[in-house]
Amino acid sequence: MRGHARHITAVCGHVLLLAFGATALFPLLLVLVNSFKDSSAVTANPLSLPTGLNFENFRQAWSYGHFQRGFINSFILTFTAVLVVLVCSSLAGYVLAGKKIRIWPAVMIYFMVSMTVPIQLFLFPLYFGFSRLHLLGNVAAVGVVIAAINMPLAVFLMRTFFLKVPKEVEEAALVDGANTFQLLRSVILPVVSPGLVTVATIVGLMAWNEFLITSTFLQGDSSMTATLGYLSMNGTFSTNQGVMMAGAVILVGPIIVIFVMLQRYFVDGFVSGSVKG
Amino acid sequence: MPATEAAARPPRRIAARRPDTGATAGRRRARPRRRSTLTSYLLVAPAVLLSALVVVVPGVLTAVAAFTDWDGIGLKARWIGFANFSSILRDPVFTTALGNNIRWMLLFLTIPVAIGLLTALLLLTRPRSRTLYQVIFLVPYVLAPITNAILWLNIVYNPLSGVVGYANHHGLNLGEPLSGLHTAIYAVAAVDIWHFWGFLTVIYLAALRQTPVEQVEAALVEGANGWQLFRYVYLPGIKSTLQLMWVMIIIFSFLAFDYVWLMTQGGPAHATEMLSTYAYSFAFASFQFGKAAAVGLIMSLFGLISSFLYTWLSRKDLNA
User: Gene3D superfamilies under this entry (chain A) (predicted)?
Assistant: First the structure.
């Protein structure tokens, strides 16, 4: 009797998991299916399967969404944000993990509070400053802003990874006469490199997906990121659903591939920022 | 601030020990120590300065601008005291927006938390399929709000070519969820929840897996059933993570912007207006930066309260 009941519970569990998995993927499958159909076929029945593999939608989406320029801008934005965050957060994380300055608790509290400051509190004067400095539309400068916004989380993550460096290794290097920069470069960075990858994936994802800052600061056609280009395409092109869905596949596809390849680091990053032991 | 005091203790203890080393030795050692402290400050500086330049300086300017009639274009601004605040507090749209933020918070404190907890518990006993399910659940979370919003707008909610339109034409009347005054906010929240809950699954699962195996086995030996196992063994272990997630959800609920702006821009007739979209419209639609700043300041107040809660809950981190 009891084994029977347990069996039923297990089956119910699997059914639930499958149902939630289907909910997560269903809209994305619809996108994929409809990206191969022409406009009238989508309108007739968005749930039907395509009759063939027609890549015309993708060709049109690529040119109307200005994806070539968009991907280049997204790369510049993401690369700048990741580079700035990696350099600054690893240096700060190293000092904070080793409690090397007397005011380290103050710095920690500063980062904790600034992590929860809403973008709306600093968006408007920052926009004004950017327009005065003629930086509106400057993709790299916006990348630096995104880096600054993600800095607190990155510092905390890097600090946890630096805490894992054994004290003895560091002391041995100092005894051998290494200075701080040699110590960082040749002894500590190799140990914390998984942390760097985790921070890079999380911040890279944030920068690539950012909406509020980028849509406000990057308004010229030439400075649009891939997602902003797609957004403007939605305004002018939304009657042809097949092309819209092809555009979505162009945007979503690479991200899913990268996510599946690096999923361990993504999960690490999400979890280490949020689970309290 | 008991956490700060406890955390500040170690450096002070080192300082107190210094006289014991004797005057000459102390002086000889003091120079390299001072230099390395200077280096340490220089290493921390880029992160702090960059964050201060982008967050603190404009943040302070916002706090000042909230009391002026600044238009965000020129440098001229007049000090008008609390006029922005009193006009906002009298505006019925503000009340609608605040109500929507609170409704948003209640939706997010319950639905994604329940789904996340349920799926995490189900995955806890399925080590083989765990990774696959986690990846599937997280896919919507790693996609950009722009793509998620547009694909829902076009293929699900669109009354002509979406699934909803298809259902309406075939006898299943779903109406137009995004255009209904009473349904719009739930239609938008549904997309944001769809994108968010997988994150909670991963977080809760990671927290659940930290429960010591011996405790689980001991409870099973004593004949605990599934509910008792959850209530008395797992729940106490993940309590702090649950609390932290709730605090983060409260913070994000008062900042919610992306999906609302992308799908309805606060419409129809302010039915999905949030504090964030309300502030954004002031700044970039009617160029009332002073009022936008005032709304931003009010939003930050909610954020600040939650932020204190967050710091208090994270105080263990400081002592790590």
Answer: MetI-like
Tokens of B138: 């997280």
One-letter amino acid of B302: F
Higher pLDDT, A43 or B196: B196
- Enumerate the residues of chain A whose CB falls inside 8 A of the CB of residue B203: 270-271, 274-275
Domains and CATH numbers, chain A: 65-237 (1.10.3720.10)
pLDDT number for residue A237? 65
Residues of A in contact with B39 (CB under 8 A): 180
Residues of B in contact with A160 (CB under 8 A): 320
- Tell me the CATH number of domain B92-318, given options 3.30.420.40, 1.10.10.10, 1.10.3720.10, 3.40.50.11010: 1.10.3720.10
Dist CA B311 CA B309 (whole Å): 6
Residues 88-117 of B with CB under 8 A from A: 115
User: So what's the ipTM on this one?
Assistant: 0.88
- A202, A78 contact by CB (below 8 A): no
Q: What is the rounded distance in angstroms from the CA atom of residue A187 to the CA atom of residue A195?
A: 15
Other C-beta atoms closer than 10 Å to the C-beta of A127 total: 19
Rounded Cα–Cα distance for residues A206 and A255 (Å): 12
- A202 SS3 class: helix
CB B165 within 8 A of CB B174: no
Mean pLDDT value of segment B166-175:
83
Residue B257's Cβ-count burial label (10 Å; 0-12, 13-18, 19+) is: buried
Domain ranges within chain B, ordered by starting residue: 2-52, 92-318
Q: Which residue has the tokens 């106490």?
A: B236
The amino acid present at A129, given as its one-letter code, is G
